[in-house]
Amino acid sequence: MTSDTFLRLQARTQRFTLGSPRDFHIAADGSHVLFLRSSSGEDRTHALWVQDLATGQETRLADPAALLSGGAEELSAEERARRERSRQQGAGVVGVATDAAARVAAFSLSGRLFVADALTRETRELTTDTPIIDPRPNPAGTRVAYVAGGALRVVGIDGADDTVLAAPDSDEVTHGLAEFIAAEEMNRSRGYWWSPDGERLLVARADKTPVRRWHIADPANPAAAPSVIAYPAAGTPNVVVTLEVIGLDGARVPVDWDTEARPYLVTAHWSGRGRPLIAVQSRDQRTVEVRAIDPDTGATELVHTETDDTWVEVTTGVPAWSPDGELVRVAAHDGANRLFVGDACVSGDLQVRSVLDVGDDVLFTASAEDPTQVHVYTSGQTPTRVSVEDGVHAATRSGGTTVVVSWSLGWSGPQVRVLRDGVEVGRVTSLAVRPDLVPEVRLLTVGERGLRAALLYPTGHVPGTKVPVLLDPYGGPHAQRVLSTRNAYLMPQWLADQGFAVLIADGRGTPGRGPEWERAIHHDLAGVTLADQVDALRAVAAEHSDLDLDRVAIRGWSYGGYLSALAVLRAPEVFHAAISGAPVTDWTLYDTHYTERYLGHPDEQPEVYTRNSLIDDAPGLDRPLLLIHGLADDNVVVAHSLRLSSALVAAGRPHTLLPLPGVTHMTPQEDDVAENFMTLQLRWLKDVLGA
Predict the structure, then answer these.
(1) Cα 48 from Cα 50, distance rounded (Å)
(2) Between 20 and 30 A from 30 (CA), which of 192, 420, 497, 596?
């Protein structure tokens, strides 16, 4: 540890995640595991490593500095966009794909294609068209597919026969890439899938011609032309996505389904256990069809239909085929998100989060009665828990070998165990920095709805001493803040140590508590999520009298920013100040898939959008509000904060607007900037609260 401040160290370690191993690929024979890791907890540059599971020895297979001969990494606009969608702030080898045996690994580095052999320990560059995106070996490890210039190409593992399989017919078209909506909202980061025999590929064609164009300017650099992006805002046209089966011999077979009725390609699956599968979704998201493809004709057969009166949730890892050819899926049923193999529920009463692997059984993550914990299970009439300690866990499996990554309140950073047939045979080293700060968090269940909350006092707090309150929520769909992991509370504890009681609450709409809980926000994001924050605050204060309810502030980013601005606009009797970072203020400016899921189509229900947006609330502001927004944000564009600010000015309501030039939806992470950024917010809070 250095003598740096906590804020500087947190920025330089990317919230103490650098040096943590990730993206595991396990050899089919259990001999080794490939993974990514930077060389220290303060190094942004990730390298490709291999661990020999017999000896535990870890060897660096691909060192970006050596492969680039010490040169700087250069990223294409497409690669920057991919990293923004995945919130990836690291450098070097940030993604890797392997063949079925996990011997041949392919990755891009500075837009160039490299392959590594886990057995010979050789890494070399293949000469290809550049810059490349998303290289993936075929199952046999004899060829690598990749995307360059919107075209899907394939090259031999020896670098020979670099061939275009699908070239775009205009600048508006790409082959083999996930479109914005898929990557941002469906957790689909890829746009092509190899056949089991490696002779064909299932390829997505994305045409953004119908999508409206938005312009993102850099006011700090007026000589620079604005970036033009295709942004599918709620109620406007989406990218048109279609599929083809493309053979290495040049044969192309269009895949047939009703793209008008089911325009969203959620995911695809192609294994040796059956025909390729796709999940396609209606625009209102109330219907998802699982269809099997005849790869010779492109005809599709309906395998399963899932419907819901509000929306059908997308779950990572399904649909898939079991070894017996039964459909593996997750569906809302009897109050839980349950795992099915064929017609049989194999997850018991657990709330299923994701499917990790389908073998003789199904490996999946789920929560039991405590949503703050996420465990790894194997399916069965009675599911078996694989993860041991309390906490949040994930896993990767191949054959009889499983890598389990565990986060807990009991330690900092991840612990990575390698299991063979359920018995630990080794560990993968984490080099993450362990902060000196140890959160003193109280996990609570409060109120009539059993809201999960976390409360942190200043270190050394003397009972009986009143302290101002700072709510620090996300509070919206698809994300939890209240989890049984120490790292989740490092920043909240630092904030608490500045003189606050920090309260974090997960209300309705957050994951892990079942379909009814998640769908309670339908058409009422504002009313439901704000009510739960108010209820959590009052319930906790009733049990903890040291919370000073005359000095209550709230801060958040993204949905948390929306919730923070909402709080001072609609509940000023409860909240006395707010910091709103990158907030959605006008839901007609946010994307189709997310917004229409919760609020419907704006042309059909404009009153729902008005009720949930913030612009019309501007005249009622009588509390201090600090708006912060990155000018380069292409997810929640800066127009959100500017429109609210304009409405506040028109209404004569004082507020503060802090624009961040060059900043996207991710907060600044440079040492000095990150420290000053947080210090500025802290001073503002203390000033307006009189703390």
Answers:
(1) 7
(2) 192
